[in-house]
Specification:
Helix 5 packs across helix 6. The two termini are 14 Å apart. This protein has a single domain, classed as 3-Layer(aba) Sandwich (Pyruvate-ferredoxin Oxidoreductase, domain 3). The chain is α/β, with parallel strands linked by helices. Strand 2 and strand 3 form a beta hairpin. It is built from eight helices and six strands; from the N terminus they run E-H-E-E-E-H-E-H-H-E-H-H-H-H. The chain is 37% helix and 21% strand.
Length: 196
């Protein structure tokens, strides 16, 4: 299986994409890698598409990942996973929440939400992991911890100690949200094996 050095995090505004990207980049740094990140979030405050690139290595010159070079994609929503599937390396891993957040075109009836998202994603990457992260986080008492569930799932694919991830996560969430985010992260770590 291909080593994960290039991670793409995608979703819509308000899903914690930037926070997740910050946690990943910091965890890479804590593990001794050079790490760079970049984000695009133009209409994010209005529920628009958000993409964030994170790269690690001995020396990383650019934060941007070229199409075909994404080793792992973390997608907070199925349609956003499809939107960026062309970025995947064929032996890549896609972790996505099958949650449906219909964009305006679908909500107004001028477009249809694609059927069989997982089947479409399988055309772009060898390893697809549907994880109901929003539902899992909601069950833990805070749906906003959806991103922590997916971070836990991502952590299982990377060869880095769990405590580095938790230190990075805890440094970035409000103190009152630490416990639920720890629980969500742990739940995500257990979710990848059950999604295979």
């Amino acid at each position: 299986m291909r080593r994960i050095n290039n991670v793409l995090v995608v979703g819509v505004g308000g899903q914690g994409i930037i926070l997740a990207t910050d946690v990943i980049a910091d965890a890479f740094l804590r593990a001794g890698f050079d790490s760079k990140k970049s984000e695009v979030h133009g209409m994010a405050q209005r529920g628009g598409s958000v993409e964030s690139h994170v790269r690690r290595g001995d020396s990383v010159a650019s934060p941007l990942i070229s199409p075909g070079d994404v080793d792992a994609m973390v997608a907070m929503e199925g349609l956003e996973a499809l939107r960026y599937a062309h970025m995947m390396h064929p032996d890549g891993q896609i972790l996505y929440d099958p949650l449906r957040l219909p964009p305006l075109a679908v909500a107004t009836g001028s477009a249809e939400y694609p059927e069989d998202v997982e089947g479409h994603l399988a055309r772009y990457a060898a390893h697809i992991h549907p994880i109901p992260a929003y539902e899992m986080a909601e069950g833990l008492g805070n749906a906003r911890a959806q991103n922590a569930v997916l971070l836990g799932a991502l952590a299982t694919l990377l060869e880095m100690p769990e405590d580095l991830w938790l230190e990075s996560l805890e440094a970035r969430v409000p103190p009152k949200a630490v416990e639920v985010n720890r629980s969500a992260f742990s739940a995500g770590m257990g979710a990848v094996g059950s999604s295979r």
